[in-house]
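> example.struct
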């Protein structure tokens, strides 16, 4: 974790962010600028800058993020109707905060 990284500060509990899930590997919270009725961020506690910076030992983290996304889709009631899970990679791919995170969006009618 890095001291100046927003998502590191959030996952360390240094903000008033409400966690929907918080365990030793990751935290899940609502996006403050949602693009869907349900828009959650799934963020590993280990600071990984982007998909491009993943190492082989990070495989369990990525798998945990995807499984958490599925669990949160079920928990928020959007699993049956459908949802999206996606990573933005680097600034050209829409990444704004350079700490790996997975978006869960859905809930459209």
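> example.seq
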């Amino acid at each position: 974790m890095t001291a100046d990284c927003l998502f590191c500060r959030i996952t360390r509990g240094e903000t008033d962010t409400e966690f929907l899930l918080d365990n030793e590997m990751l935290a899940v919270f609502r996006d403050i600028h949602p693009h869907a009725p349900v828009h959650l961020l799934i963020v590993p506690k280990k600071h990984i800058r982007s998909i491009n910076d993943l190492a082989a030992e990070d495989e369990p983290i990525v798998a945990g993020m995807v499984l958490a996304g599925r669990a949160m889709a079920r928990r928020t009631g959007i699993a049956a109707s459908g949802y999206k899970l996606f990573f933005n990679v680097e600034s050209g791919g829409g990444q704004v905060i350079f700490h790996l995170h997975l978006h869960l969006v859905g809930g459209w009618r």
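> remarks
The mean pLDDT is 96.
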